[in-house]
Specification:
The complex is a heterodimer of chains A (221) and B (231).
Chain A: E1 2-10, E2 13-21, E3 25-29, H1 36-44, E4 51-56, E5 59-63, E6 68-69, E7 77-80, H2 92-103, H3 109-119, H4 134-146, E8 152-156, H5 164-181, E9 185-189, H6 192-196, E10 201-206, E11 209-214
Parallel strand pairs in A: 3-9, 3-10, 7-8, 8-9
Antiparallel strand pairs in A: 1-2, 1-4, 4-5, 5-6, 10-11
Chain B: H1 6-39, H2 45-57, H3 60-71, H4 76-85, H5 93-117, H6 121-129, H7 134-145, H8 147-163, H9 166-172, H10 182-190, H11 196-228
Helix pairs in contact in B: 1-5, 1-8, 2-5, 3-9, 5-8, 5-9, 6-7, 8-11, 10-11
The chains are: A alpha/beta (221), B mainly alpha (231).
Chain lengths: 221, 231
């Protein structure tokens, strides 16, 4: 269960987000510039809200009044960025293993193998990020976030940099991720067609405000 | 061909040792200073930046003199280090290494700072979401991504240390077998009648060492660069 009640002034734009998510895939849906990425940056801890609170299950990630602001690296919130952001100086295997390594967990070949199979990236393990196609890179980015054993997975328009064919190549993996991995997801997108297959719940964001929350029917409006 | 006397060889070995020690010992300080200047904002930063660059613009003799009145055997810092840690700089090869390290420091810091400033901070954000605290973030992301600049900085510092003359001779004099580097030995030979051919021998050695250092750094920088581009 994720509860977000935050306010943040960004220049002359005020972001005021109020929503909750109960597992499954929650889609933050709205036009570009509506503040969706800022919202998930605040959940991840990469941006600090001016006021409000963010709770994840029974953990307080941020609470202005209680002066709690958990550092990014302690939050265990996985983040798949629009541009992948794979580490260029590491092999794909080391990229995938990075979160486990930093978390100090022992190697778990079963979990590693499962994620690699789920995303079909076994043939890439010894390569370096520079040689990957856009679609391969995003699948590795998803795997890397998944293998850190996150409490929550944030995906920021993970398909935005891909053409239509590539999008359709990756969408099934994301559906499997939602159904099999059982990690709650917050998925940011402005593309209704893309998220209609993924969403179990939709939060519509416009002009820095949450204007509606509900089911996939919100995507048609 | 080369016909070096034992004294010449000692000067060559001493030069290499002094330049290597100066480069390696100043490296951690250079990385720390470059990181602070690249990433931190604080009151007095431009003053610190100016002080770091000072050896680049001061006449080397002035730097040597400042070292003498700071690190000399009876000078405040020199006496303290000698009495408490047994570290003596004056008229020792360690003093020559200190002078070379100080003279080379601005070049080293500059190269490393530029490469740290060129790092894509978004990669560091990604690493922190994956659970890397500030220490591990620095070790696993920042440092490897700055590696080409660190190699370039080491190579510049090494070359500068090999060529250092003014500050060294002012601070620790020109003692054969202790502080007489290639540069000082060449200078000494050119001051005595008939020393020209012996000086030329050392000049050839200096050229060979410099070219070898350049080629080695080019090789390592190329390898590091290829790694960074993810291929």
């Amino acid at each position: 269960m994720l509860v977000v009640e935050v306010e943040k002034k960004l220049g002359d734009f005020t972001l005021n987000a109020l929503f909750a998510s109960e597992g499954g895939a929650t889609v933050l849906f709205g036009p570009s510039g509506a503040g969706k990425t800022s919202i998930i940056n605040m959940i991840a801890g990469l941006m600090r809200p001016d006021r409000g609170r963010i709770l994840l299950d029974d953990v307080v990630l941020f609470d202005r009044d209680a002066r709690v602001n958990m550092p990014v690296w302690q939050r265990r919130v996985g983040y798949v960025f629009q541009e992948g952001r794979l580490f260029p100086h590491m092999s794909i295997k080391r990229n995938l293993d990075y979160g486990r390594w930093m978390g100090g967990h022992p190697a778990d070949p079963a979990a590693f193998g499962h994620a690699v199979d789920l995303l079909d990236i076994g043939h890439l393990l010894d390569r370096r990020p520079g040689k990957l196609s856009g679609g391969e890179r995003q699948r590795v980015a998803v795997g890397r976030a998944l293998l850190m054993r996150p409490r929550l997975l944030l995906l920021d328009e993970p398909l935005a940099s891909l053409d239509a064919g590539r999008k359709n190549e990756i969408l099934p993996y994301l559906e499997r991720l939602r159904d099999e991995a059982k990690v709650p997801m917050i998925y940011v997108s402005h593309d209704a067609a893309e998220v209609s297959r993924i969403a179990s719940r939709v939060v519509r964001v416009e002009g820095g405000k949450v204007t509606a929350t509900g089911g996939v029917e919100l995507l048609d409006a | 061909m080369l016909n070096l006397t034992p004294e010449d060889w000692i000067a060559v070995q001493l030069s290499l040792r002094i330049a290597a020690v100066a480069t390696l010992v100043s490296l951690p300080f250079g990385i720390a200073m470059a990181y602070v200047l690249a990433r931190k904002d604080f009151w007095g930063k431009s003053l610190l930046d100016a002080i770091v660059h000072l050896p680049l613009v001061l006449p080397p003799v002035v730097t040597g003199y400042l070292l003498l009145i700071t690190f000399g055997r009876r000078a405040p810092v020199g006496a303290f280090l000698a009495d408490n840690f047994g570290i003596v700089f004056s008229f020792r090869w360690t003093g020559a290494a200190l002078a070379c390290g100080v003279m080379a420091f601005p070049l080293m810091v500059r190269a490393i700072r530029l490469s740290i400033e060129a790092i894509d901070r978004r990669l560091e954000d990604a690493a922190s979401t994956l659970g890397a605290n500030r220490f591990w973030l620095f070790i696993t992301i920042t440092l490897p991504l700055a590696l080409p600049g660190i190699i370039a900085g080491m190579m510049l510092a090494f070359a500068r240390a090999l060529g250092e003359f003014g500050a060294t001779i002012t601070f620790v004099s020109n003692i054969p077998g202790e502080t007489q580097t290639i540069s000082a030995a060449i200078y000494t030979l050119t001051q005595v009648p008939g020393g020209d051919s012996a000086a030329l021998q050392l000049v050839v050695v200096a050229v060979i060492i410099s070219i070898a250092a350049l080629m080695a750094s080019e090789f390592f920088a190329r390898r590091a660069g290829a790694r960074l581009h993810g291929v």
